[in-house]
Amino acid sequence: QLVESGGDSVQVGGSLRLSCVVSGYTRSRVCMGWFRQAPGKEREGVARIWSGGGSPYYTDSVKGRFTISQDNAKNTVYLQMNSLKPEDTAMYYCAAGTRCTWEPRWYNYWGQGTQVTVS
């Protein structure tokens, strides 16, 4: 089970930190990803990282602004979002999968989503 939190309405230039608590299975050797979906648009990958560590990856539109991190002791993955823009407005989802890609189909477990609105 993945449970996201931290979404909110913020002003342009503001910051938010999303959290994803993972429970019910071992997080070893899985890719943890953050995706987002705006109304009328396809779900897109935002950031991803292997649970065992390694380099994170970001989609171009968030590079330099978003940071993915994880606290294995808390079984939690975070997405720190700074310098938020209106185009960041979307439902944000946490996901766990066996392949570290941008393709949602490789992620087996999904959270319910948390809404981020930037205006």
How would you characterize this protein structure?
Helices cover 0% and strands 49% of the residues. It is an all-beta fold. The strands form 2 sheets. Strands 2, 4, 5, 6, 9, 10 and 11 form a 7-stranded mixed β-sheet that branches. A 4-stranded antiparallel β-sheet has the order 1-3-8-7, with no helix packed on it. A hairpin with a 6-residue loop joins strand 5 (44-50) and strand 6 (57-58).
Task: Indicate the topology.
Blueprint: E1 2-5, E2 9-10, E3 16-22, E4 31-37, E5 44-50, E6 57-58, E7 66-71, E8 76-81, E9 90-97, E10 107-110, E11 114-118
Parallel strand pairs: 2-11
Antiparallel strand pairs: 1-3, 3-8, 4-5, 4-9, 5-6, 7-8, 9-10, 9-11
Q: Mean pLDDT, rounded to whole units?
A: 93
Low-confidence stretches: none
Helix-strand topology string:
EEEEEEEEEEE
Let me know the number of strands: 11
Rg calculated over all Cα atoms: 13 Å
